Queue: 2 jobs
Job 1
Amino acid sequence: MADTMATEATAGPQGTKRDFLFLATGAGLAVGTAAVAWPFVASMAPDAATIAAGAPLDVDLSPIQDGQIVNVFWRGKLIFVRKLTEKEVTDMKAVPLSDMIDPASFESRVKKGHDQWLVSYGNCTHLGCVPIGHSGNYEGWSCPCHGSQFDAVGRVRRGPAPTNLPIPPYAFETDTKIKIGEEGGKAAA
Ligand code: FES
């Protein structure tokens, strides 16, 4: 049984504080009934070992607007779910691999047929701080601890972080729903 849970959304590049509040509410409702449903789900059971292993997490993408980032937690780890704007998709596809610290094509960072969606772990690959969205010079994130910067698909573009934000196992169930923790219909180890 998949758990559902969402924590917060950040406004897009043109977002306002009002947008933030609206989205935080919308994401909470849409992604899940999560917080509300959890006590009932828990009482129905997965056993302790299953909970520790981390059941897959369903995320409803429908309330997420272009340019917005939603934070969710899976297996206790922060995960960014970001809907790229068309401009960001175009810009990210155009970055030469030679400009990157940890070269990775755009295609390797998204699922085929779902160019607008980035799903990545949300902790800096230097020492684990949480990068701030929509900041830095690469349309992505900047890390407040030591200045690393990541682009809109989570590729590190300025160190000291040595590697890109890792991609967790996930699969599209429909165009508006992903399941984190399963890759191609199989539960992740
Ligand atoms: S933890 Fe992000 S740059 Fe050091």
Note: The domain at 51-180 is CATH 2.102.10.10 (Rieske Iron-sulfur Protein).
Job 2
Amino acid sequence: MTAIAENDTLEAAVPAGVYAETVLSVTHYTDHLFRFRMTRPDGFRFRSGEFAMIGLMVDGKPIYRAYSIASPSWDEQLEFFSIKVPDGPLTQHLQRIQPGDKVLMRKKSTGTLVLDALTPGNRLYMFSTGTGIAPFASLIRDPETYEKFEEVILTHTCREVAELKYGIDLVAEIKADEMLSEIVGDKLRLYSTVTRETYPFMGRITDLIENGKLFADLGVPPLDPATDRGMICGSAIMLKDTKALLEKAGMTEGANNKPSEFVIERAFVG
Ligand SMILES: Cc1cc2nc3c(=O)[nH]c(=O)nc-3n(C[C@H](O)[C@H](O)[C@H](O)COP(=O)(O)OP(=O)(O)OC[C@H]3O[C@@H](n4cnc5c(N)ncnc54)[C@H](O)[C@@H]3O)c2cc1C
């Protein structure tokens, strides 16, 4: 039985302590990336920027993976931005979901990319690569982000131009939304770069921080622990290299129980 067909009989098989939510829409961006929205369970609370475990029943067993919740905490639906790994145990099936299908979600969310883990500052940088933009898709739609920071700079680096579309569309949607655009004003800036194609802004974000081009392009001063805060989400190497640059600028890493100047979270394991 396929994973999707199996979902028809999912209601009966949903493990205890797990929600089974209905897919509402699916948008495919590239052969490797898609977004989906699903119903939000009654009583499910999370902080913008957190991740949850989502899954599907495959061959009679649930398969779960960590996923950043890409929608903000006030949204009545849940949004996710996903990779499609050709042989990936979960995403080889997840990439085929359609509206009406069921997706499992464990009841607890957690994570370090939350506003509470940062000390007050003026400018918030969100550094992301690939699907690492997902937690920031949540945070840039949360009014609290703009109550706490005067300027929010979201950087998104991908290999190809087509992979930037989710982030670009997101910012356009915020600007077109009557309520959000009033809250966000001109505080939010998106800085998209690619590493393998020609584009107005090119290169790895770590190189662009190191050589100062990021700051020159944005017309802002270099990183300063007195004013700037950071959140980083990407591959293990991207986290390590970006973290080193923030530390070199005098910033220290924080956590939920010890807020500080920047926080990090892996976009995937491996
Ligand atoms: C805290 C956390 C949050 C995450 N949030 C998301 C999210 O919002 N969206 C998302 O698509 N994935 C996210 N992931 C990764 C996710 O948990 C799965 O790994 C992914 O969905 C693939 O699942 P799979 O079972 O198909 O393949 P897996 O067996 O899990 O992965 C196979 C291989 O694919 C590669 N890979 C996995 N995920 C990615 C990715 N996102 N980008 C690039 N390469 C990848 C890795 O090399 C991995 O070894 C997150 C992981 C963690 C730890």
Note: The first strand starts at residue 18 and ends at 28.
